[in-house]
């Protein structure tokens, strides 16, 4: 990453086109995204409520408007709602047919912009899990190969719909099966950040909050988005909508959590989280340059 450069990523999730979709929130999100002007847009799954063709068509039209008005590359990944639930035969034999036709032909993808490599992994598991998901060993191999080709200094980031760390509240959501092993695998690849959705409320923290891991030095930044455009917010974001703006520089990663407030008639910043960027272990004094650990390399 070039000295002085900064990357801005807009991260939303759980659009839920269908009955729960909230058109006013979709317009407010698009308006705020135009103002922010991100370099990359990430939507981490659940584009639809019941994986119906008409829901996918509406989601595709919205994504096209996003691309036209915001003008940034788009990273997507399926969620558990993006495969059929009640259409059992379709869920078994062609679960991603509508997703592939309307959202993206590939389920696991690699996106590169200067300074950032993003690997999106499909965590939906229509034949094994209805709500929770899975990340398979071959997907970890896919990510490992993609990150091995990342330019030196790139921020290595994973996107998956399902969460690897539960939100710190009373809901008690279980993370992906084998979450600890997956986090260890990501750490070995040099992954610095994981983006996700599914929980319908935000959680912004660090993998060390829930699992010390083999390397306890710094962990992985965890960024979960709430539901950006549906009426299905949960826990502390019940009846609320949110998304995240991530700003990546050479020294640090800043995550600003936006929520929609009726009083403002728009999405507004609600909380601000800043992390040192590897190889630094802490933020510099008075928000100056971070300090690297002796002998550590990017």
Explained architecture:
The chain has 298 residues and is α/β, with parallel strands linked by helices. It has a single domain, classed as 4-Layer Sandwich (Purple Acid Phosphatase, chain A, domain 2). 22% of the residues lie in helices and 25% in strands. It has six helices and 14 strands. The strands form three sheets. It has a six-stranded mixed β-sheet. Strands 4-5-6-7-9-8 form a six-stranded mixed β-sheet, covered by helices on one side. Strand 1, helix 1 and strand 2 form a beta-alpha-beta unit. Helix 1 runs parallel beside helix 2 and helix 5 runs parallel beside helix 6. The longest helix has 18 residues. The N and C termini lie close together (11 Å). The mean pLDDT is 92.
Strand content: 25-35%
Largest sheet: 6 strands, mixed
CATH top-level class? Alpha Beta
Approximate shape: globular
Number of helices in the DSSP assignment = 6
Order of the strands making up the biggest sheet: 3-2-1-10-11-12
Total number of distinct structural domains:
1
The CATH homologous superfamily is named Metallo-dependent phosphatases
Along the chain, the helix and strand elements come as EHEHEHHEEHEHEEEEEEEE
| Overall number of strands | 14
> How far apart are the termini?
11 Å
* Second rung of CATH, namely the architecture: 4-Layer Sandwich
Which structural category do the helix and sheet elements fall into?
alpha/beta
Q: What percentage of residues falls in helices of 4 or more residues?
A: 10-25%
Q: What's the short version?
A:
This protein is α/β, with parallel strands linked by helices and about 300 residues long. The chain has helices spanning about 25-35, 55-70, 90-95, 95-100, 135-150, 180-190, and strands at about 5-10, 40-45, 75, 110-115, 115-120, 155-160, 195, 205, 220-225, 240-250, 250-260, 265-275, 280, 290.
């Amino acid at each position: 990453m070039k000295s002085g450069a900064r990357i801005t990523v807009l991260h939303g999730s759980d659009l839920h086109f269908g009955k729960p979709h909230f058109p006013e929130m979709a317009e407010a999100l698009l308006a705020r995204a135009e103002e922010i002007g991100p370099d990359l847009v990430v939507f981490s799954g659940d584009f639809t409520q019941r994986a119906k063709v008409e829901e996918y068509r509406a989601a595709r039209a919205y994504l096209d408007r996003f691309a036209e008005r915001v003008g940034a590359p788009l990273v997507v990944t399926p969620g558990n709602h993006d495969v059929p639930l009640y259409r059992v035969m379709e869920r078994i034999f062609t679960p991603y047919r509508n997703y592939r036709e309307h959202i993206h032909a590939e389920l696991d993808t690699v996106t590169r912009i200067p300074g950032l490599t993003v690997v999106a992994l499909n965590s939906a598991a229509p034949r094994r899990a209805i709500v929770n998901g899975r990340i398979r060993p071959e997907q970890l191999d896919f990510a490992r190969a993609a990150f091995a080709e990342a330019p030196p200094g790139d921020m290595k980031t994973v996107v998956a719909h399902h969460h690897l760390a539960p939100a710190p509240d009373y809901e008690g959501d279980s993370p992906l099966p084998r979450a600890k092993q997956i986090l260890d695998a990501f750490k070995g690849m040099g992954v610095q950040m994981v983006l996700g959705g599914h929980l319908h409320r935000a959680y912004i923290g660090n993998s060390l909050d829930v699992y010390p891991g083999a390397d306890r030095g710094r962990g992985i930044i965890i960024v979960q988005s709430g539901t950006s455009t549906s009426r299905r917010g949960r826990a502390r974001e019940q009846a609320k909508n949110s998304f995240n703006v991530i700003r990546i520089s050479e020294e640090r990663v800043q995550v600003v959590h936006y929520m929609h407030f009726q009083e403002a008639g728009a999405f507004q910043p609600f909380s601000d989280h800043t992390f040192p960027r590897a190889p630094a272990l802490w933020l510099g004094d008075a928000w100056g340059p971070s300090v690297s650990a002796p002998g550590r390399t990017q």
